[in-house]
Amino acid sequence: MIIRGVVFLLCFALALACSQHDTKTRQYLARGEALYLAHCSNCHQQDGSGLGLVYPPVNTSDYIDKNFESVICLMRNGVKGTMTVNGQLYNQPMPGMPQLTELELAQVATFLYNKWGRKRGIVETAEARQALSRCDSLTANAH
Amino acid sequence: MYYSMLALMVVAGCAPKRAPMPVFGERRVVGSDIVYHTIAPFQFVDQDSTPVTNATVAGKVYVADFFFTSCRTICPVMKTQMLRVYHATEGMDDVLLLSHTIDPEYDTVALLRDFAARLGVESKRWRFVTGAKDSIYKIAQTSYFATAMEDQSEPDGFIHSGLFLLLDRQQRIRGKYDGTREEEVNKLIADIKYLRAQPHDY
Predict the structure, then answer these.
(1) C-alpha distance from residue B32 to each of B23, B136, B149, B200 (Å)
(2) Residue of chain A with shortest Cα separation from B180
């Protein structure tokens, strides 16, 4: 009985925590979604499903799940060559978006990493900056 | 009951007949005949290195567009929409899709072949063609009335329209659609079905 009560309380607390993104997170999510629609959804589609084997999906994607920093780097710098996503080989160059600021990259990343079942929470500008400072070493190890 | 029957009859009776599809472009009168604008002679090669000419499309209803594989602006949306047309015309052997690259230097036959394979489409129903750049631009501008030209001030180095053009069996333009808008492409799909049901000389 006590265990059941504790489980109930835990679920309740969790639900409360999840439903109450703070204002900043909500702003990042909204702005990130707008940026996604403006800069990414042309190829990756509004629902993140990609297009055939030309543009990889971003909704269900082991690449995105496993390569947080690389994803931020490739948004800024673009990426060329082959990439394996969900076991499928893609080879369409993606142009970078150098015009996006660190804040904007953090906002897109916040959207991407809290959408389609992901629950990373807010991506702070400092995290985006940190990732960008490591792009050279990441590209060397990529794929 | 009586009124609802009446209403039904009125609705059915007054349902507007489909307006005849237009024929775009100039027309000339020769003797007692009207000669319509058709697509000028062309010769390109597709993703299988097979020549594609006016003979390839003769007697078919086809959809033409202009794009390039490295384009990040409107082309991905156009290809998403053209893929819908491809799936909607499954099993229709008299329908062909013809996508011209406007960047033939980069979009080689091998690259177009890879692109088509990655879209998962068959070359007999969707041909991606390349050829001499001047010929592609000329046919775009003078035969299909579509914009296609190089412009280094554009992000991708080209300006071009997102038009899908519907052509009848005699290579006359019967419809123009914004290939980036889903509802326009729905209309195109309906028009393809209508056009192929019409007599050859419609």
Answers:
(1) 18, 34, 38, 20
(2) A42
| Res A9 pLDDT > 80 | no
Of B161, B147, B193, whose CA–CA distance to B174 is shortest?
B193
**Tokens read off for B186:** 């729905």
Q: How far is B114 from chain A (nearest CA, A)?
A: 9
Distance, CA of A86 to CA of A116 (rounded, Å): 15
Q: Residue A2 — very low, low, confident or very high, per pLDDT cuts 50/70/90?
A: low
Instruction: Provide the 8-state DSSP code for A59.
Output: S
* Residue contact B83–A43, C-beta within 8 A: no
Q: Which residues of A touch B80 (CB under 8 A)?
A: 45, 51
Give the mutation candidate from A39, A49, A51, A54 for the B interface (greatest B CB count, under 10 A).
A54
The model's pTM: 0.80
Q: Which residue has the higher pLDDT, B23 or B3?
A: B23
Give me the residue from B76, B114, B117 closest to A55, CB to CB: B76
Which residues of A lie inside 8 Å of B (Cβ-Cβ)? 42-43, 45, 51-55, 91-93, 95
Are B164 and B65 spatial neighbours (Cβ–Cβ below 8 Å)? yes
Distance from CA of B115 to the nearest CA of A (A): 7
Read off the pLDDT of residues A86-101 as tens digits, 9 standing for 90 and up. 999 999 999 999 999 9
User: What per-residue confidence (pLDDT) applies to B200?
Assistant: 84
A132 CB-contact burial (10 Å; exposed 0-12 / middle 13-18 / buried 19+): middle
Closest chain B residue to A92, measured at CA = B70
ipTM of the complex: 0.74
Question: B119 and A51: CB-CB below 8 Å?
Answer: yes
- Which is it for the CA torsion A2, A8, A11, A16, positive or negative? negative
Give residue B156's pLDDT: 73
Of all helices (H) and strands (E), which one includes residue B196? helix B182-196
For the cut 60, the answer to whether the pLDDT of residue A18 exceeds it is no
User: What confidence tens digit (pLDDT) does each residue in B133-164 have?
Assistant: 999 999 999 999 887 777 777 777 777 789 99
